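Let's inspect a concrete specimen:
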Amino acid sequence: MKVYLADDVWPIEFERSVALGTFDGVHLGHQALIRALLADAEETGRIPSVFTFSDHPDLVFRDRETFPGLTMTVEEKVKVLAELGVAEVFLLPLAPQIYRLSATEFLRDLLRSRLNAGMIVVGEDARFGSGRSGDTEFLSAWGRENGVKTVIIDDLYCDGEKISSTRIRSLLQAGRLKQAATLLGRNFGFRAEVQSLRSVEDSEGMVEIELRYPAGIVVLPPGRYPVEVFPDFVGFEQRAGLPLLWQTELEIVIAKGGPQLRLPVPLGTHPENSALYLSFAGS
């Protein structure tokens, strides 16, 4: 996987298949886009690439105070996309020089000229360009006029509701992790940094790790959750092939400084990791 940032040189000698989107959570709907991307790349020899942003649009254009948080960090999003088979990710900040482009400029100057896109795949509710002026109808017409293949992926539904990052965030906020996992296609989880060890007064002299709740991630309700504990930043595809560090019940508490994580450590275990990956299994 190669990640290109805004100031990097973007090679244009090879044509690309490009999936366009925010991809927060890389849920089942996003995965349908990636399958179409990979199918086109395999058929044509184009490089399967994703064009996405390091900022979420709601954090740029709406009230930051009311945004519930992301379902994954940008780093994990890139890692998951790589595990799905994406070869390149173009990761840009949602800066004025991007969002002030007209829909035509966005397609012509960014995707076609700078990325050498020969195919563009989006979801049916995709919007792009200044004022969200570009939609799938605009994209399809532009593609026909400019010799660029366009693919529109229909929304996916579960229990009569559209699968979306917004819906998943709402489920997480309500503590409905099992339902969220269904839409994600995997268990919800995140990387958490170890803050300290503390002894717990019980008959077994149990020890707990206190971890910092990751900034910017949707905060789950206080309570206890069964978790699988993995080494730091193991991708969801790779976890199946690696041994668990341990399984336990995590407690989330809301303190003055924000949410805190308390993770019991099995007797005889001496974790040396500065951070751990917590997968909310069976929640």
